[in-house]
Design brief:
Layout: H1 4-11, H2 17-21, E1 34-35, E2 37-41, E3 49-58, E4 60-61, E5 64-65, E6 73-82, E7 85-92, H3 96-104, H4 120-124, E8 137-141, E9 144-148, E10 155-157, E11 164-167, E12 185-187, E13 196-203, E14 207-216, E15 225-234, E16 243-244, E17 248-253, E18 256-258, H5 261-264, E19 274-276, E20 283-288, E21 300-303, E22 308-318, E23 321-329, E24 353-360, E25 365-372, E26 376-380, E27 392-397, E28 409-414, E29 420-424, E30 429-430, E31 435-438, E32 448-456, E33 461-468, E34 474-479, E35 490-494
The structure holds cobalt (II) ion.
């Protein structure tokens, strides 16, 4: 007999919301080098590295839920592949706030996305302290791993056991509490070094400053800051992500306003005070990279199309143009103060669409085309092609072709022909960001592996699925010993 969930899926949608929301729970346990079970496919002996993922691991303290999963404390999952064996290590990032709240077993900080301390509005008003929750991304810089959260500094972790070393100023590069983006780009094609980590920090207000930093990420000066510049712009800037080409760092300053009053008064989280302003024009901010041929020159600012962007996919230079692929929403999506994030109606939220901007540097104009109307997020390219012209992109998408819904499929798209192929976890599986690992020594852009952590709504557990990135065929499925809530970003580290 079909279960209630299966009947609901059949009658109405490609998914059941309670399957989706069942992923939201606290991670109960930390493991170290726990062997994980292959339940389908074959173990891949050629894999020799570690998949690293970051995302919220604590969503509830006593009876109080976070207001938005983005307010959950960061938990790192590392899955190491060596000689055909796969082992899992998972650790919470031991931030100051995590340690304090663990001891008291309650929320004592307000979350940026609307989580309030106990005690109501009065107890939250005028408390403007943030908890650095280190939950957004994990990357290697030099000999350390960094757990990132964009409004404050990185937490350094030991790559061997994922234990937290502590908040890092990167050998004096960052001032106390200086913002450090959660979206660094690893450039393998720079003229200056075999591997550069490019990232930024933004300080915002009526005017905003972008600090663009380029670190060596290989060789004798591994981890050292090579290039550094600061540029001042008019207006408020909410910049979650950016894109790079060989010579440019590309930002999209969304047309939104920040009204801090409800935040200060204790009624809303800071991110709930962001609102699209249809009278404003979004701007592309192009900053010359100091490692490139336009070093020392001023930024170029060009009017951008309507819409809101969290994530870019990739960018490259072609003649006088910068070609930029991004995921555009019609509006800024936010979970309001009276809504429960586990019970949201997906139909009421804007969906993300893959669009291509062609930014003409000479004429200072931009135009936009839609590559696909199907709702998507977390798009990526072969890391060797970051900043260069890439033909293929892989991303998490909805199962349905139009409208918003949970992400249940992984799509490979040819950005020239728009040809698409899929792997699907529907109706009861829910996907996260795919991580593309190119096949060693291969010259084919799409040859390699895709790693996806999947929430298995039927089993009520997390699986790791490995796909062939070329034909999207399933190669291996592992069952994980921990239940990982829908997560954010991650990376692959060669052993
Ligand atoms: Co992001």
């Amino acid at each position: 007999m079909a279960s209630l969930e299966e009947i609901q899926i059949k009658e109405k949608k490609t998914y059941n919301r309670s399957d989706w929301s069942s992923a939201y729970q606290n991670v109960e346990k930390e493991f170290e080098n726990e062997e994980i079970k292959l339940v389908s496919g074959t173990s891949l002996n050629e894999l020799n590295g570690t998949l690293l993922r970051n995302g919220p691991g604590i969503l509830k303290r006593k009876e109080q839920w976070v207001h938005h999963p983005f307010d959950g404390d960061g938990m790192i999952t590392g899955i190491k592949f060596k000689a055909g064996k796969a082992t899992l290590t998972n650790k919470f990032v031991k931030t100051k706030g995590f340690i304090e709240e663990e001891a008291k077993q309650k929320f004592i900080y307000r979350g940026v996305f609307g989580t309030q301390k106990t005690g109501g509005v009065l107890n939250n008003a005028f408390d403007l302290k943030f908890k650095n929750i280190a939950n957004t991304h994990i990357v290697r810089l030099g000999d350390k791993l960094l757990a990132l959260w964009e409004a404050a500094g990185p937490h350094a972790l030991d790559p061997n056991n994922l234990e937290t070393i502590g908040l890092s100023n990167l050998n004096g590069v960052l001032k106390k509490d200086e913002a450090f983006s959660a979206h660094p780009k690893i450039d393998l094609n720079s003229q200056s070094s075999s591997e550069i980590l490019v990232t930024f920090g933004v300080q915002t207000g009526p005017k905003s400053t972008i600090r663009l930093m380029e670190f060596s990420n290989s060789g004798d000066n591994n981890g050292e800051l090579l290039f550094d510049r600061k540029d001042l712009f008019d207006g408020f800037a909410f910049l979650h992500d950016f894109a790079i080409t060989t010579n440019w760092a590309i930002f999209l300053q969304n047309a939104i306003d920040f009204n801090p009053i409800p935040f200060i008064m204790g009624q809303k989280g800071a991110a709930q005070c962001l609102k699209s302003n249809s009278k404003k024009i979004a701007k592309f901010i192009l900053i010359p990279r100091e490692s490139g041929i336009f070093r020392g020159q001023s930024p170029i600012i060009i009017d951008a199309p309507k819409g809101f962007v969290f994530h870019h996919v990739n960018a490259f230079e072609e003649d006088n143009n910068i070609i930029l692929d991004s995921i555009f929403y019609d509006d800024f999506p936010s979970v309001g103060p009276d809504e429960d994030f586990r019970e949201i109606d997906f139909d009421n939220y804007p969906d993300g669409k893959l669009k291509r901007s062609i930014i003409n540097i000479k004429n200072r104009t931009s135009k936009i085309t839609t590559t696909s109307n199907q709702c998507c997020e977390f798009a990526t390219v072969n890391p060797k092609f970051l900043g260069l012209k890439s033909i293929f992109s892989w991303m998490a998408t909805t199962e349905q072709k139009l409208g918003n819904a949970p992400l249940q499929s992984i799509k490979k798209i040819n950005l020239i022909t728009n040809e698409e192929i899929y792997w699907s976890a529907a109706p009861r599986g829910f996907v996260s960001e795919p991580i593309m690992v190119p096949k060693k020594n291969s010259l084919n852009e799409d040859e390699g592996f895709l790693f996806i952590v999947v929430w298995n709504g039927k089993r009520k557990g997390s699986d790791l699925v490995i796909l062939n990135s070329e034909d999207m065929k399933e190669l291996a499925v592992y069952e994980l010993p921990i239940n990982i809530p829908h997560g954010l970003h991650g990376s692959w580290l060669e052993n």
